[in-house]
Structures are given as structure tokens and as C-alpha cells.
Amino acid sequence: MFAKMFKDGLTRRRLLGSGAAIAGSAAAAAILPRTAFAADKVVKIGFLAPLTGPVAAWGKPGLDGCLIWGEWINAAGGINIGGEAHAVEFVAYDNEYDPSKARTGATKLIREDEVKFIMMLGGDTWPGAQPVADRTGMLFSTLLPSDLSPDTTTLIAPCEVHPIYNVTGVEWLADNMPELKTAVMCAQDDALGLPSVATYLAAFEAAGIEMQDDPLLFDPATTDFAPVVTRLISGNPDIVCLDTCYADYVHPICEQLFQQGYGGQIISCTADFYQQIVAKTSEEFMEGFIFQFPDFDDPALNDESINFQMPNEFYAEYASRYGADQWGAVSWEYASIMDLWKAGAEKAGSAEPDAVLAAMKEGGTGLHAFGEADWWGEDLFGIDNALVGNWPIVVIEGGKATIKEFRSIPEWYAKHGELLKKHMSAYGQMWDQRA
Amino acid sequence: MVELLAQTGLNALYAASYTALVAVGLVLIFGVMGVINFAHGELFMLGAYAIVAVYADWNLPYLVAVAVGMIFVGIVGLGMERAFFRPLRDNPLGGLVASIGFLMILQALVSMGFGVRMEHVPPVTQDVIVITERVRLPVFRLAVILAAVVLLASLWAFLKKTRFGWALRASAQDPEAAALQGISINQTARIAMFIGAALAGVAGALTAPLISVNPHMGHSVIVTAFIVIIVGGIGSLEGAVIVAVAYAFVHTFVTTFFDGVIADIVGLLLLLIVLIAKPTGLFGSTDRA
Q1: How far is it, in rounded angstroms, from Cα A24 to Cα B86?
Q2: Mean pLDDT, rounded, for B197-217
Q3: Is A1 on the interface with B (CB under 8 A)?
């Protein structure tokens, strides 16, 4: 930003960034297995996500994370495909969370850039890209498995099982704070908000927590959240659930909850840039805020079961380049998908979409960022293309996000799956309803 | 219930204040220049980014940042008048298209300069006036309401009591007759554009600590502003203020007692009803309709 450029100084920022990049690359080169690769062997990966606009917070930080991932992988010798080392190169296209631009971007990435795999946020943009996927057989990934259906045979959700993992946060809340019995919820009325509403409703019902009111839906163009918050807390609920609100909404809603004197529990899918919320409210107010996305400097991520290369170093590198307060829900997710794709390509000995997909799904299990997981989803999405396992429950303590526990999504689903299907159906979010 | 109504009323007053500032600026530009300025929401956004730069990044006092924002956006408005609206004065559609193009340029420039992510603006004050346990008015929201009242009252005095104000009103009523009386159309257009843009800028600057500041934030206010000026009567300053207050109350109460999506539908229904019953708007004249 211009102002920050003047304030911080371009030279200093670049110097710090370069220094951190060199240090990170050196660390990666030292730790990751090393092979030699010819410079002309390059495998291109498409990054088709919102880089501008209101949903950019779930695109741009992911690209930033991928660039670090790519530098580290290349520094460590690249991706070994069929016995030959390949450098990885990301080609980004900003779809602005617009389906028509997603379609244009997918076509351009495949035809002109000749990418071998395309990562998307999904949601409203997937219907734009789907005809291209159907026509070309290109392998796509989404962060939103609600995009999946029996027709999306080349679409996988290998990292984030949004919004199903939200059940783990509610389950943990109910186990640890059994005195909280009533909840209210608000959400933006869109493809991200509604399936999450259904999931939270199922999770609250499973936990024996009563909804005081129907979920309060608001227009995504809302700027002033005072009326929303006034309505939410008018019945003195024990819990306010912020569903999967975008960061642009979570911040002003929390500020309003603070200013209107709410003192109860808050639970949310995300709390991107939560340090800014703490600054706008107080450490005391945000104490105990529950969400689902950890900072990767968390020591709990150093456990052997975690399938993400050097999470603490990755976080440090990210923070040094972009600032710790710019770390968000997706900063690590697209990089994590690349870990899975890399493993699949190396196993298949090919970067071709069908070969990589077959290798990734072989045996019906896989290693997802938070440990062993199953390819799952037939029951809910009509296809087993979501990789589902454990997911962390994160709580803000002393102004810092802390992983409290990992909980199993499949275990919750085995007990309460019918509830989830009931609420998904009520909101028209089952795959056959969406189709 | 009384407390809920009271809190909702306070919320509505705040919404009315910044909506009126934006809408009045838009009306003033249209009234004098006959141009629908689609980039008005982006002028609001520029005002908010002035706060990001001057207050959040350079740590200068908030009031200084507001003043900088208001003047800077006013100057941007002057540039728009000279670059687009004056050459296209006889082509209202051309002016409209130019303003659409300019809004995209402003969004792109801000994205390049500041990045696409939501900006953090530290709170100016976290003090809250606690009327009852359930009725609270944050001091900063009260300040925004008071600032809007002062600015709109100052504008009213300027238009009614000063020669420049008379010239602006004369140009708005009949540009040719005003020109025959020796009033410079270029001069009045410059003044209208500066004031109209500055009002949008100051609205953005005042509300920046309370909303998400991002390059696309102008979109949300421009839709509301257009509803307000169409219902109020395009070209009517009084209509813009009265309808801004009425719309803010209706929207806020419907959001609180039903939900935000229904509130938007109600707002658009009101627009439709007024257009059918009185196409010139509630306070509009047939000359500008």
C-alpha cells in the first residue's frame, strides 16, 4: 500500500522479505528430500480464485502461501514426476468471485498456460468453471465440498470440508461449556452462508443447544451491522454464531457485539485477521472466541500426524513477507492441496489429471493436512471426492489463536449424519436440490 | 421491546446520517450538472482510504484525516468535472458512461496502491453512552450523527444565504437563464462537484472506523443513494435528506424485526411504488425528471 510503502520503506520491506525467503528456502532445501531437476522441466498449476473484491480474503492469501510453497519445493529439487524433477510454477487468474470470469479463467489457464491442475475457492464460481472441467477433463480442487455432485467427477475437495468441520467446534463447545444452552446465528445469504447455516443448525441440535430464533440472513452488501446485532442479542442468547461470514462482516459484527454490550460466547467458522478484531474490541472481549482455523505457529501442528511440511516455519515465512496480521483461513490451504497433488503426481509418475486423481484416491484414503483421512461424501454430495478426517478447534486465548483439540468429522457424522441431511435439505443444500 | 425499539431507533439515526451525506452530494451534482455520477460510491471509498492512509498508517489525528479526506476527494471531484463532465456536458449519457469507467479506474488504483484486503482502521474511541443495559450509543456513532447534521446544516446555509449558493440553485433550476444572468456555468459546476464529492468523501472518512474498508465498498452505498435520490426526487436536496432518514428508519427496523434481505426488498418495493405513483419522486420537479 502506498501509505505503508512510505511508512515502512520499500527497501526495508523487500530486504526483510528477501531475507526471509532466502532463509526459508535454505531451511526447506536442508530439510526436504533433494533431487536435481533440469530448468526446462516445469509443471504449471492454475490458481483460479478471487484475488480482488469482497471475497479476496479467501483467495489472495492462498496464492501468497502457494508462492512460498513453490519456492521451497523448487529450492528442494522440485517435483519428481516419472523420474524427472520438475519445477513448479503457479499461474494465477483473478476470477473476482464471478462465475463468468471463472469460466474465462479456466479456459485461459488450460488452453494458453497449459496447466495440469487448477485450484479454486469454489462456491458461486464453480458453476462457471464446471463446463470447462466437463469438456477438458481437467482436475480441479475446491475448498467448498458443497460444490460436489455425482457430475463433478474431476472436482475434488482435498483440504477443507467446508462447512462440515464446523460441527467439531460446536461439539467441543457443548462438551466444555455445558451451561450454554441457547444460540442465535447470522449469515450472509449466499452459497457460502447457507450450507454453513444448515451445518451449524445440525450441530447445535446434536449438542442439545436450542436456537432462540431462525438464522438472521443479511444481504452481502450490508455495511452497517448494528441492526443485525441488535436483533441477534435482543433475547440474551448464551451463544452468538457468526456462521461462515466473510472477514469483512465478522469484524464489524464483533465490534458491534462489543459496543452493544454482549458478554456471551461467540463461535464462528473463521476469524481471519483476528488481531484486528482484538484491537477494535478488547482482549477480554475476544477471550474464548471459538473458530476453526489455526495459526500455523501453533506447537500442536508439530505432531507427527500432521501432513504439512514445516508448519511453524511456513507461518514465520508468511508473517515475515506479508505480516502476521494478514494470516488468514486460506493462507495454508491451497499449499496443503499442493502437498496432496505433489504426492499424487509423484505416485502416478505423471502430471496428467486423470492419473493424478487416480493416484490420490487409491485405496479410498489419503493424508490430509491434519492427518489420515477418508475419501468421503457419497451420502451428502453424491460422490466420494471430499477428503475428510480430523479438524482443529481453535480458541482465542490472551489475544492469540490456540488449537484446543482435533476432533473427527467422520465420527460426528456417524452419530448425527441424519440431522445434517435434514437441515441441508431444509435449506436446499443437498446435491440433488442444488442441481 | 421498548429497549429494542430505542436501540433500533439509534441505529437508524446513524444509518440516516451517512446515507444523507452521500445522497445529498449525488443530488447536488445531478442538480447542477445534470450528470448521474456512478463513481459517487468510489468517492465515498476514497474518503475511507484517506483515513487508512492519514490516520491508520501515518498516525495523524483523526480529525486531520477527515479534513484531508474531505478536501482530497473534493479535489478528485474537481478533476472529474474538468476531465469528463465538462467535455460531455451536452451528452448526459456520455457523462454517465465516463463515471462508470472512472469508478473502475479508482477501484483499480486503490487495489494497486493499498491491496485488495480489508484495511484495519483503529477505533477512534471505544466509549459508549449506556442509556440502559440494552440501549447503548457508542460515542463515535453519536459524533458521526452530529457531524452529518452540522455539515448538512452548513450546506443548507450556504445554498440559501450566500451568492455562490444562489448561483448554484439558479444553475440547477435553469442553466440557460442563469448563464444569461452572468452566472458562470463552469464555475457553478466546479463548486457543485467539489461539494458533492467532498460530502461523499467525508461520509466515507467519518464511517471508516466502523465499516470494512476495501476497494469495492462503494458499491453498497451507491445503490442505497440511488434509491434515496430517486424516491426523494432527482435534483431535490430536501427530498434526499428526508428520504435518507425515512429509508434508513424503514431499512433498519425491517432488518431488526425481519431480516436484511427482506429490508432490501422493502426498499426496492418503495422505490417501485413511488416511481409508479409519482415518477418525479416525492419532492422532484418535472424539469429534471
Answers
A1: 55
A2: 91
A3: yes
* Chain A residues with CB-CB distance to B46 below 8 A: none
| Contacts B117 to A, Cβ<8 Å | 56-57, 60-61, 273, 326
Question: Judging by beta carbons within 10 Å of its beta carbon (0-12, 13-18, 19+), is residue A13 exposed, middle or buried?
Answer: middle
Backbone angles phi, psi at B251, to 5 degrees: -65, -45
Q: Is the pLDDT of residue A12 over 70?
A: no
Selected residues 364-423 of chain A with any CB under 8 Å from a CB in chain B: none
Q: How many CB atoms lie within 10 A of CB A287?
A: 13
3-class DSSP assignment, residue B129: strand
* Residue from B36, B31, B19 nearest B192 by CA: B31
Alpha-carbon span B272 to B104, nearest angstrom = 28
Burial (CB count <10 Å: 0-12, 13-18, 19+), residue B269: exposed
Measured in residues, chain A has a length of 435
Q: Select from B4, B5, B7 the residue whose CB has the most chain A CBs within 10 Å, as the one to mutate to test that interface.
A: B7
Smallest CA-to-CA distance from B199 within B47, B35, B38 is with B47
The CATH class given to the A2-162+298-388 domain equals: alpha beta
Phi/psi of residue A357, nearest 5 degrees: -60, -45
Residues A80-94: tens digit of each pLDDT: 998 899 999 999 999
**Parallel, antiparallel, or unpaired: how do β-strands A239-241 and A216-218 relate?**
unpaired
pLDDT of A145 over the 60 cut:
yes
Query: pLDDT, tens digit, for every residue of B85-140?
Result: 888 887 878 888 988 999 999 988 998 888 777 788 889 988 999 988 889 999 99
Q: CA angle, A84 as apex, A80 and A87 as ends, to 5°?
A: 65
A-B C-beta contacts closer than 8 Å: 136
Higher pLDDT, B212 or A277: A277
CATH 3.40.50.2300 segments of chain A: 2-162+298-388, 166-293+391-434
The sign of the CA dihedral A209, A213, A215, A220 is negative
Is residue B40 a contact partner of residue B25, using CB atoms and an 8 Å limit?
yes
d(CA B274, CA A232): 32
Cβ contact B8:A224 at 8 Å:
no
The pLDDT score that the predictor gives to residue B287 is: 54
User: How do strand A400-408 and strand A390-397 relate by DSSP bridges?
Assistant: antiparallel
**Calpha distance B170→A324 (Å, rounded):** 56
Give the residue from A51, A61, A139 showing the smallest Cα distance to A95. A51
CATH number 3.30.565.10 is the correct assignment for the domain at A166-293+391-434: no
Q: For residue B286, what pLDDT band results from cuts at 50, 70 and 90?
A: low
List the grid coordinates of A102: 471463472
Q: Does A32 touch chain B (CB under 8 A)?
A: no
pLDDT per residue over B155-196, tens digit each? 989 888 888 888 888 887 777 788 888 888 888 888 889 999
d(CA A184, CA B259): 13
What's the CA gap between B52 and B47, in Å, rounded? 9
